[in-house]
Amino acid sequence: MTTIKTVTLPDLGEGLTESDLVEWVVAVGDTVELNQVVAEVETAKALVQLPSPYAGVVAELLVEPGVTVPVGTALLTISVEEPVTAAAEPEPAPATDDTPVSTEPAAPERTSVLVGYGPLVEGSSRPRRRSKSADWAAAHAVADDVGLALAGGRIGPRVLPPVRKLAHDLGVDLNKMVGSGKDGMITRDDVLRAVSGVEVSPAARRPDALSAAHRPGLARPLKEAPTPPEAATREVRTPVAGVRKQTAAAMVASAFTAPHASTSLTVDVTPTLELVEAFRADRALEGHRISILTLVAKAVTIAVGRNPSLNAHWDEAVGEIVQYGYVNLGIAAATPRGLLVPNIKDADRLRLPELADAIGHLTREARAGTTTPADLGGGTITITNIGVFGVDTGTPILVPGQAAIVATGAIRRQPWEFRDQVALRSVMTLSVSFDHRLVDGAEAARFLADVGRILAHPGTVLALV
Predict the structure, then answer these.
(1) Which CATH superfamily is domain 243-464 in?
(2) Max intra-chain CA distance, the chain
(3) Residues 274, 425: contact at Cβ < 8 Å?
(4) Is 122 helix (H, G, I), strand (E, B) or coil?
(5) Residue range 313-350, pLDDT digits in tens
(6) Across-strand partners of 80?
(7) In the chain, where are the structural domains located?
(8) CB neighbour burial string for 409-447, b if at least 16 within 10 angstroms, e if fewer
(9) What are the tens digits of pLDDT across the range 166-199?
């Protein structure tokens, strides 16, 4: 018995109420297995792969890429073959000589579970590979479905999913475009022309104006017209969504909720750089990429232990100050998707090699777009390394809910007083922004002085812990 199952956007945790559908990885007619990835969605915190809770055939895609949908929204339907129970089956008619006997094997029983739960169906096979021509035909079949649904106003203009994604990435509004492809289909060239500002001639908009670029097997036109220099893009609009939307909202909330204050300190970090080189030459630490950021992170966790007010939270709802007995150290990372701040859980309990590994893992995951919501939530204090951009100092905005954020500037070789003489030394400026409701200026100064002291004289750690 065939039934149609609806797959909805699940609750992805961390208080997230909506997601952007980035890309479908299946098409109508594809066979999917249980827990097979069918789409990628972007939450306000991470890019998440969405698995299928059913095994069957994709019947309909209900949401177009680039659309923001709330939790519980129907995303797609899947046609599922379910076994008929014995109670529902009619009594078999008595066999006669004229009754044909079926030799077909019984259909295997399939199991449906919620997203992310339960084992994969044993014995299930992966979707058979189709030829490029079959993929092309399936894509146009999807386009025809889109055209039929357009009459009901549910789905937007006629466009294939890869072209829609390109338009989404470039900030092109497809609803304002007229396609030059067959039956008004919006093509890749149409999107690129919209970005460059080149108008499509009325003749090119005719249904029969399908260029060689839109034929199967060809990736681009046989001959492309040069783009006039005066057609250069003067304005590009990008929808505010996903990480960018969340970051903007968080920064506004932080700036207008917590009273920010900041202080800075310039220190000679030459001894710390020498220590980093010694660590890198130590075979016992081979495989652990210990950097200046690793030692800054270690210094921050030590200084927090001596100045706990910087590792706290102002709970407005109940009128309490929450003092953390652990350090979940956030590491701000600039990624193609925007600013992400994953954090290292219980960073204060990690040895230096473990801390180095954790920092490397978090930054790689952030740049690859695979950071999980769990990695992004629960931070207590943050480090942002603005020095990688050649900047000496700055006043970073607090991560909402945190009491402090430390910024590390660029390391400069410059004249510095050293042993009563002037010498070239490696110098770095540290700055800290803090919530003045939680942290007094004196406490912030003592905290920053402790961090600077450790980096200027690493041996003093023995006296501090």
Answers:
(1) Chloramphenicol acetyltransferase-like domain (3.30.559.10)
(2) 113
(3) no
(4) coil
(5) 988 888 899 999 999 999 998 887 778 899 999 999 99
(6) 3
(7) 1-84+107-128, 129-219, 243-464
(8) bbbeeeebeeeeeeeebbbbbbbbbbbeebbeeebbeeb
(9) 777 677 777 777 888 766 778 877 877 776 554 4
**What is each CA distance from 47 to 13, 143, 236, 372, in whole angstroms?**
13, 26, 24, 8
Fold of 129-219: Dihydrolipoamide Transferase (4.10.320)
| Cα 431 to Cα 427: distance, rounded to the nearest angstrom | 13
Q: What is the pTM of this model?
A: 0.55
Residue indicated by tokens 């180095």: 356
Q: What distances in angstroms separate CA 374 from CA 15, 65, 116, 206, 370, one per listed residue?
A: 11, 25, 16, 51, 11
Domain 1-84+107-128 has CATH 3.40.50.1780: no
Alpha carbons 126 and 115: distance in angstroms, whole number: 18
The mean per-residue pLDDT over the stretch 40-56 comes to: 82
- Residue type, position 404, single letter: A
Amino acid, res. 284: A
DSSP string over 203-218 = GGGSTT---GGGSTT-
Measured on CA atoms in the order 419, 424, 426, 431, is the torsion positive or negative? Answer: positive
The Cα 338–Cα 344 span in angstroms is 19
Cα–Cα distance for residue pair 274/276, rounded to 1 Å = 5
Q: Integer distance in angstroms from the first to the last C-alpha of the chain?
A: 69
Annotated catalytic residues are: 436
Q: Are 366 and 382 in contact (CB under 8 A)?
A: no
Strand 404-408, strand 381-385: pairing: parallel
